[in-house]
Amino acid sequence: MIIGTAGHIDHGKTALLKALTGQQGDRRREERLRGITIDLGYLYASLGESDLTGFIDVPGHERFVHNMLAGACGIDFVLLVIAADDGVMPQTREHLAIVELLGIRRAFVALTKIDRVDAPRIAEVRLQIESLLQAGPLAGTPIFPVSSIDGQGIDVLRAALIEQAAHVRSNRDNGHFRLAIDRAFSVTGAGVVVTGTAFAGQVRVGDELTLSPSGRSVRVRGLHAQNQAAQQAQAGQRVALNIAGDRLAVEQIRRGDWLLSPELQAATRRIDIEFTLLPSEARELRHWAPVHIHLGAQDVTGRIALLEGEFLAPGGHVHAQLLLNAPAHAVHGDRVVLRDQSAQRTLGGGRVLDPFAPPRNRHRQARLAQLRALGGETLEDILPGLLPSAINGLEPGLLERQFNRPRQTWRLPDEALQINTRLGPRLFDRDTWDYLEQTLVAALQRFHETQPDELGPDRDRLRRYALPQLDRPLYLALLEQTLATGKVEASGPWLHLPEHRVRLSDEEESLKARLWPLLESARFDPPWVRQLAGELDVEEDRVRHLLRKLSRIGELQQVVKDLFYPDSTIRLLANQVLDMERQAGVIRAAAFRDQIQLGRKRSIQLLEHFDRIGLTRRFGNERKVRPDSALASEVELRWSADNHFPASPEAI
Q: N or C end of the chain: which has fewer CB within 10 A?
């Protein structure tokens, strides 16, 4: 258990810890000379239990609240210290507000210096404390009158703390390791040492970690947990790590940095939170106000963007986005405390909802609905509300970082569906995925109704027409599913519904019967559109329209503008290409020209057409057949069956 103090300056926090542990907290020379705590102090002692308890002694002076916040972020239990002679003071209220904002719900109040006052004064201050706590989450917190000078009440307080330690169990050790660094120093003969509170997970000697936000890789050479040498440490402990890395120097590490398992490394500058403005604030908070943001042990400046209005009244709650002036690390559920621009007073705080907040559309109702869903405590609580609004699904890797939950620990809801894409898996709500499929099929039906003369769009055109908002890898996975189930069919590059066919009119059938022999008889050098039109004495536009229609239904292939080859002739040319590669290992334009006995320009046009339809791939001045080409596989299959290729287009 980690116990932290809180309270006004000179109310006896350090003296109380000395009475409880027998150890001196203020170890710096300037602290002993001035008689006040300036920075964080750390003590480790056994209160009577088998394990050591860690104590964090925080400064009480208003000028050192930023140091208090750096230490308070990782404590399990707070000792709110209030002197009987002074009673409740300004920093008592501010420290209490910070404790409540940090979500710390285990606490005792130590009513110190009772040796200086009489019984009526103790009773009076007790009433002040009860009134102070009454409206907040720590109402009813036990109050222990003590004297650090003569030892009154110390044993009773110690026994109560031992009992609390037995009930404190960390539920964070199933996540990836993360430690908030609050000190970094160099030890002769050992190198760089960092200390902090382990927020989650476990770490062992020899582990590879990442220093965030820099992303530098380091290795754990040795560690101490709760001030004792150990081979491993876990969440909820004070940990000192001796780390090593390439050219690593202590000057490169600052308070507020993190040591993380590599899976968690993803620094951010935009964080969505649920925010509460303290009721004690004298004025409302404006949108885009400059603030100091305390996250973990880090203090970074930035601005707060209110997502539901331009102003927030004292005591109000709102969703907000923090825009940081320096990169930070956070996961869902982390607590943040905001102070004003001059760092003179605490404004409020809240809880991290999304550490990877989007830069755009943050005010839209769909985004606010996502933030409301993210208000749950666990991933299992949140997914049922989050999945239906995720039109592009949820990326498991991002969720793992966002919630610090390794995937093997997830319990997915029944309505969750994992879709595998070329860029990895995505999680979808089953109803959402079914809706996307229905939308795709319905859009294709509309396309057929508006373009009856076309067999269908290609896949990219259909995406633009049906689901432009869907990420391309997800669209391809959806399309593959509809093709596999037969709800959509493909004819070459064209997609269409199974029952849809492009039909030629009687006039078009008559024109086709006249021009088709001209295309086939010319073999590798078919006539151009204008030549066909002149030969048949038909308008060029009529010929061009019919040839394009025939190409859409797969009977022709357009090599360049106004030059169409019968599909059977293209297959013969593909035969030539495959045969050339089998003999020479590569395809060269000059050899292909000699093989088909056409000019260089036409040969290059045909080879570039083969590149476009995926038969070949160009490497400099040479080409090779693509191993994944469907056309190549089809031609090879025919060659394997017959051991030869037919000599005429009609034979294919």
A: C
